[in-house]
């Protein structure tokens, strides 16, 4: 009596749901990702054993190896108000587009006389200007850095009070290159102290064990 052969069926896996899921994940990350803006200056900070981390609300002054000074403040709303105060003091008029560009930037190292041209330029021109700039002036004759620091603290404290937050929430930090001249760092510290800022952090890299 002949054997009855049971037909074999090859199991198959439908990959359609997996492909749909992959595309959904890619779309989600593309829509929610925040692209990092180009940094005007990159410094190699010295190492230390401190494990204390900076908060999200920081006024940062960066000093590179050439002694050039760059300024940044995290809160975008504060940044805009600070720019408006600087524009009023130095009689510079910025367009809404230029103000928006400044709001989205990180470090800025332009004297006020060049800032409008810098904000109106495209990214490639800005990169060239970042390389050639002498940084924000901080000498005794033209101390624009002192004004940036002062307006940053005043504006942040005012907005904090409006929101019912701590008026002293703003943290201040100096981020100096490990090869920056110590005398330059001392001058920056003196600018802070002249504006009654006696508490600030020095940004470092965590030293390996």
Structural class: alpha/beta
Number of helices: 7
* Number of DSSP E strands: 6
Strand content: 5-15%
The tally of structural domains comes to 1
Secondary-structure element series: HEEEHHHHHEHEE
Poorly predicted regions? none
Give a description of the structure.
The protein is an alpha/beta fold and 209 residues long. The protein has one domain. It has 7 helices and 6 strands, in the order αβββαααααβαββ. It has a 4-stranded mixed beta sheet. Helix 7 links the parallel strand 4 and strand 5. Helix 2 crosses helix 3 and helix 2 crosses helix 6. The longest helix has 19 residues. The model has no long low-confidence stretch (mean pLDDT 84).
Write the layout of secondary structure elements.
Elements: H1 16-32, E1 47-48, E2 58-63, E3 69-73, H2 76-90, H3 96-104, H4 112-120, H5 123-132, H6 144-162, E4 171-176, H7 182-194, E5 201-202, E6 205-206
Parallel strand pairs: 1-6, 2-4, 4-5
Antiparallel strand pairs: 2-3
Brief rundown of the structure:
The protein has seven helices and six strands; from the N terminus they run H-E-E-E-H-H-H-H-H-E-H-E-E.
């Amino acid at each position: 009596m002949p054997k009855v052969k049971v037909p074999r069926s090859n199991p198959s896996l439908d990959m359609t749901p997996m492909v749909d899921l992959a595309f959904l994940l890619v779309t989600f990350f593309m829509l929610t990702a925040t692209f990092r803006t180009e940094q005007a200056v990159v410094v190699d900070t010295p190492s230390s054993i401190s494990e204390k981390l900076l908060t999200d609300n920081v006024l940062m002054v960066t000093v590179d190896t050439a002694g050039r000074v760059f300024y940044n403040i995290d809160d975008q709303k504060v940044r805009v108000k600070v720019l408006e105060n600087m524009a009023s003091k130095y009689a510079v008029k910025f367009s809404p587009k230029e103000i928006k560009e400044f709001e989205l930037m990180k470090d800025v190292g332009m004297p006020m006389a060049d800032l409008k041209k810098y904000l109106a330029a495209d990214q490639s021109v800005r990169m060239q200007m970042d390389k050639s700039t002498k940084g924000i002036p901080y000498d005794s004759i033209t101390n624009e850095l002192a004004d940036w620091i002062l307006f940053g603290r005043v504006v942040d404290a005012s907005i904090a009070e409006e929101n019912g937050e701590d008026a002293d929430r703003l943290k201040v930090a100096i981020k100096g290159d490990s090869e920056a001249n110590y005398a330059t760092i001392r001058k920056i510290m003196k600018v802070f102290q002249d504006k009654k800022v006696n508490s600030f952090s020095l940004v470092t890299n965590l030293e390996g064990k």
